[in-house]
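Progress note, sequence design subtask.
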């Protein structure tokens, strides 16, 4: 009986094994063959070059340079230690460190793993020479973003880094994937779709040790499109050198077209640090000086006395004052229950003297005649309290208060003292440097509110026409002419607050501003245009916590002087 049972069990076992073999060979044979074939196929990706960023003359401001990565095909992990021991002396890194990198980036056997990036050409050649005896090692060329001028125009350029989760959820439907290199901030982010390259690569067959047997196919990568800006590289350098280590911003613009000629924000950063994974990158996010913020468009400050230009415009347009209107400045004036000070005792002041000497008392009284709501409305007409339409990301709108806003949002009444503060650009007034330069352009071009832009061409096609929009403001010709003459007097008059610019060989006009921002030092402004007769440039120099607006005038003089000496005017 027992032998029969044993024979029966053995027979059943063989029948079961036979069915298993038939299933593997006949039913699942094609699938297993496909899996086996795929297991010996490797896709070696090859990226093209990200598009270049050029200045208005075609000079390269950002490009890509060729680097070499040491890549391992993880076909047989039993060979890993031997492989790492072979390449370790060449790379100058211990096998343990290389193994740690391998484990960190290992995903699946079919995906190559980079154990060292951006190695120099000599090391790459040395590894190529031992490749036949070292299983699965490949030198993979890669284009790495290069910033030849360091931190020059860093906020305008932006930087590149691995895509984060937030961007990936927004962009994965457009072909973006994990570990893609994308733009953050500035031109790199705004035009990432155009700048980014299309990936190509080589399909190879490998043996059981991960060695390449043959090449099966190749799809070439495609480079990204070049973006040409309106920036002038020479002027950008001059502006950055003149601003130096001071905290603040400088914006220079063509008053007729809105083309941004130079844009600087300080403190700055080196975009290349993100490419090189520099340890200093962490400090950029935690620093109290906020070096990653573009102060030209993404930070707002009290306008100070530059705002008097808006008040003067509103007063002339509403016929509340004329050229003969005079107020006496004795160093202060009483409004309501408060005493409102001027920075000096100016005596009798008309509009020309009020702007030339930046007399607070004149504008306290003028502001009360005009009224807070009218001042607000004219500020909005001149481009404040809303974004300018500048194309780079993260522009903010600033803010101009009004009696209605205070009533609805703070449930408080508006008093004459609030109007007095508004009239000299204090209180809740917040503006950006790019808004200031746009406002001043109205008086340089005699009545047009332009839209600032910085992109000239994409892939050789002119796109500036799409951005170039100018609105004619219905101001009286006499108003524009009067304000222009007052701005010229600020520089030309020996007692003008920006008289330091009068020694330049090019005539300039503008307005200084000292914006109180307790508890620290005031901010300094100079906003103007030059040459006065036929303006080619509008400039805004903002110095954060620098003290008086005079110091901004000094920086402006340095910039204009260097431009003259280099024949750029």
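Output:
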């Amino acid at each position: 009986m027992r032998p029969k049972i044993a024979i029966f069990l053995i027979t059943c076992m063989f029948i079961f094994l036979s069915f298993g073999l038939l299933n593997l060979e006949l039913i699942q044979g094609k699938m297993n063959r496909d899996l086996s074939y795929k297991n010996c196929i490797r896709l070696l990706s090859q990226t093209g070059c990200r598009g270049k960023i050029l200045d208005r003359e075609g000079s390269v401001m950002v490009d890509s340079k060729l680097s070499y990565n040491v890549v391992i095909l993880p076909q047989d992990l039993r060979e890993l230690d031997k492989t790492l021991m072979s390449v370790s002396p060449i790379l100058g890194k211990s096998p343990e460190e290389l193994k740690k990198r391998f484990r960190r980036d290992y995903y699946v056997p079919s995906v190559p793993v980079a154990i060292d990036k951006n190695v120099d050409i000599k090391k790459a050649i040395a590894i190529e020479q031992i490749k036949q005896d070292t299983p699965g090692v490949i030198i993979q060329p890669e284009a790495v973003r290069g910033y030849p001028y360091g931190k020059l125009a860093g906020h305008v350029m932006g930087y590149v880094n691995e895509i984060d989760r937030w961007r990936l959820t927004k962009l994965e439907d457009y072909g973006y994937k994990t570990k893609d290199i994308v733009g953050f901030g500035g031109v790199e982010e705004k035009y990432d779709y155009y700048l980014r390259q299309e990936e190509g690569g080589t399909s190879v067959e490998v043996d059981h040790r991960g060695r390449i047997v043959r090449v099966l196919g190749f799809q070439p990568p495609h480079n990204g499109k070049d973006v040409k800006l309106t920036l002038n590289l020479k002027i950008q350098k001059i502006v950055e050198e003149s601003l130096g280590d001071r905290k603040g911003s400088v914006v220079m613009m063509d008053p007729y077209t809105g083309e941004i000629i130079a844009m600087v924000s300080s403190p700055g950063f080196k975009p290349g640090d993100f490419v090189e994974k520099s340890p200093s990158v962490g400090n950029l996010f935690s620093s109290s000086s906020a070096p990653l913020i573009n102060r030209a468009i993404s930070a707002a400050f009290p306008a100070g006395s530059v705002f008097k230009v808006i008040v003067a415009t509103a007063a002339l347009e509403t016929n509340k004052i004329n050229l003969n209107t005079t107020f006496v400045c004795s160093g202060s004036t009483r409004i309501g229950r408060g005493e409102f000070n001027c920075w000096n005792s100016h005596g009798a002041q008309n509009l020309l003297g009020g702007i030339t000497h930046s007399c607070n008392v004149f504008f306290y009284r003028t502001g009360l005649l005009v009224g807070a709501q009218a001042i607000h409305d004219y500020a909005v007409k001149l481009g404040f309290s809303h974004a300018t339409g500048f194309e780079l990301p993260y522009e903010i709108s600033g803010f101009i208060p009004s009696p209605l806003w205070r009533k609805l949002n703070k449930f408080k009444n508006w008093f004459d003292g609030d109007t007095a503060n508004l009239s000299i650009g204090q209180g809740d007034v917040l503006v950006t440097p790019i808004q200031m330069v746009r406002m001043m352009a109205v008086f340089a071009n005699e009545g047009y509110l332009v839209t600032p832009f910085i992109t000239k061409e994409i892939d050789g096609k002119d796109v500036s026409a799409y951005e170039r929009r100018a609105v004619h403001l219905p101001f009286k010709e006499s108003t524009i002419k009067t304000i222009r003459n007052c701005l010229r007097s600020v520089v030309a008059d020996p007692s003008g607050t920006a008289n330091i610019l009068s020694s330049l060989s090019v005539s300039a006009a503008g307005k200084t501003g000292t914006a109180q921002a307790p508890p620290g030092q005031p901010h300094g402004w100079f906003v103007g245009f030059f040459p006065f007769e036929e303006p080619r440039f509008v400039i805004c120099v903002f110095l954060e916590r620098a003290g008086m607006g005079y110091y901004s005038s000094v920086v402006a003089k340095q910039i204009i002087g260097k431009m003259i000496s280099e024949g750029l005017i």
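The two ends are 114 Å apart (CA to CA). Work on this subtask will continue into the next period as scheduled.
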